[in-house]
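One record is given unchanged without comment:
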Amino acid sequence: MTGSPQPDDHWTGLGWDDGWCDAFAQLPGTPARVGRVDRGWLRVLHQEGDRSIAAPTDGPPPVTGDWVACALDDEPPRVLAVAPRRTALVRRDPADSAPRPQVLAANMDQVWIVHAVDQPLRGGWLDRALVVAHGSGADVLVVIAKADLDGADGVVAGVAALAPGVEVLTTSAVDGAGVATLHARLRDGRCAALLGRSGAGKSSLINALLGDTTHQTGAVRAGDAGGRHTTTRRSLVRVGGGAVIDTPGIRALGLWDPAYGLALTFPEIADLATHCRFTDCSHTHEPGCAVLTARDDRAVDSDRYRRYITLSD
């Protein structure tokens, strides 16, 4: 099959819309969405099902969530082109000594930062997750998992204090709290990428959304609430009318080109920065710095100022 497919429930659930139809009118081959990348192979989802196809060896590699144009009738089948991304979840590649970006997922409408009640709330990690999530161009939501455990209210308050203005939703895979609300966010083919540390409860949350225990989960270590990695590859999972992209637990979350994400994570500081005397103000020592003045006058929280400067370095 070539050309743009006609909408149906299966295809729309993968996120197909008029915009992708227009994009693929300029591309050869059959549209498909990358559901998984594993050792040089792609698992692609298309209108007639799914199949494995070799990843292209030239150009930037496709990632989970990408839309690709494929020659599925060739032997072997191959990827002809990768459609331009609408959104991309990007960090600095932790495996490479030379600085370069690593795209974790593409074309999601939302990023759900998942944090479990029984995990320590680390402000530095949450800040970085918010910068990466906002920088993706997608909507951002903090999902508090395992809210059936004691201490949920304190965790919600802690997140609200660290990230004022960011929406927070409590969920529980045990009693189903919040699951219907997340389901509603996936209607009409919308896609959410999950971002969290090991043991955050991402796989259990997906199981709750699916209504079964298909997605593998792992035990959490007593003492530090650190979980074993149960997801080893990023994978797109169809849920209801849309999809989620699961990711392995992320320890290192280095920032790549963080200016846009920083501005959305610390909007009050970004707004003040437009009033500084110098356009290249570092907000650390310059005369006429509106950010420093606001910090000294306590119009900006000193802890948020410190965290902003740390991430700006």
